[in-house]
Amino acid sequence: MASRVRKLGWESTPLGSIATWPRSLRSVVAICLRSPLRMAIFWGPELTCIFNDAERDALADHHSDALGMPARELLGDLWDAVGPHLQAVIDRGVARRGHAELAQLTYSCSPILDDDGAVGGVLLVSQATIAEGPAEAAFDSGGRPFHQSSRARLEAATARGRVQERGRHEHELRALLSDLRAAQRRVAAAGDAERRRIERDLHDGAQQRLMAIRLELAMARELLDRDPETAATRLEALQHELDETLDELRELAHGLYPALLASDGLSAALQSTARHCAIPVRVQEPDIGRAPRSIENAAYFCCLEALQNATKHAGPRACASIRVTMRDGLLEFCVSDDGDGFDPAAVRPGYGIVNVRDRVEALGGKVEVTSAPGCGTTVVGRIPLP
Q1: Which residues lie closer than 8 Å to 351 by C-beta, 6 or more apart?
Q2: Does the structure show a pLDDT above 70 at 263?
Q3: What is the pLDDT of residues 21-41, one digit of tens each?
Q4: Terminus of the chain with fewer CB atoms < 10 Å: N or C?
C-alpha cells in the first residue's frame, strides 16, 4: 500500500499533494502502513480515507478504489453505526470504541492531532468479531457424552489461538499508539520551537533594522530642504542598510527552504552547505538528479542535522562525508564522520537524531545510526521514491 499511497493523485482529493500534508499526518500514515493490524486514517472535513495492507484485504470485495474516498461513501451501510463515532472523535478529541453488528467487527477510534494541536482526523483500528463460546459436547445414541472429538479440540484450539493473536495485536496496537502520540508531541513541539525561532529572528534582526531605517528616512526628509547634501549622504547610507536587511531576510528564508535546494536540487545544496561547515566535509556522487520536493527537503535537513551533530560531538579534528544515491526506488543518504563516536547502548538519542527519524519516517522511510567509541558515527536514511 505504501507504493499506492505515494503514486495516487492526491491533488484531486481534499487532502492535496503529499508535500502539503501536515507532518503529523505523514507520521501517522508511516506508522499505519507498517502495521500488521487493520488500520484506516480518516482526515479532514470529508474524512478522506488512507489505509494499510491489512485493511485493503478486508475492503477488496467492496471497494477496490477506496484509497482517497470520503468516509461516508466508503462505509456505505456501516456509516450509520461508525460515522457518529468518527464525528464524535473529531468534535471532542476523545477516543471511542464500537461494534458494527452488520460487518461483525469491533473497532476503536483515536484522535489524530494536526501540527497546530487541533484534531485533524481519526485513526480507526478494526478487527473481526470472534466467537469465544465453548465447543458443543457430542452425545451418543443413549444420550451419554463422548470425549471431546478431534474436530472439537481443533476448533477449541483455534479459538484459543485467535484470542491469543488478538491479545498480541492489541499489545502491538497500544505500542503503536504510544509511538504515534509521542511523535505527535515531538512534531507539535518542533513546530512551536521553529515558529518562536522565526519570530525571534525577525523581531531581533530585520524588524529592528527596518524601524531604524524608517526613523532615518523621516530625519532625511527633514534635511532635504535645509541641507540637501547631508540628506543625500544619509539616503545613500540607508540604501546600503536596506541591502543588508534584505540579505538578512534572505538568510532567514534560506533556513526555511534554501533557494539553492529549490533551484538546483539536493546535490548542489549539500555541496554549498559542506563548504560552510565548521569541519571538513566531502560530498560524494554529487549528481543524482531531482527527487520530489518533499523528499529532497527531508533529506537535506536530515543531512544538516547529522552534520551539526558531527560538528558538536565528533571532535575538533574530525572529518565528515555525505553520500546521496537514488536507486531501486529509494533515495538514500549517508552522513559519516571519523570522530570520537559513542556507545549507542549507553547514550540516549538526542533531539537531532529523533528529528531525523521523524522526518524520514513521515515519508515511509527508515533511519539507521551506527557508532562505537573511537570509530566515528554513521547516519543512514532511506526514503521511498514515488
Answers
A1: none
A2: yes
A3: 988 888 888 888 888 888 889
A4: C
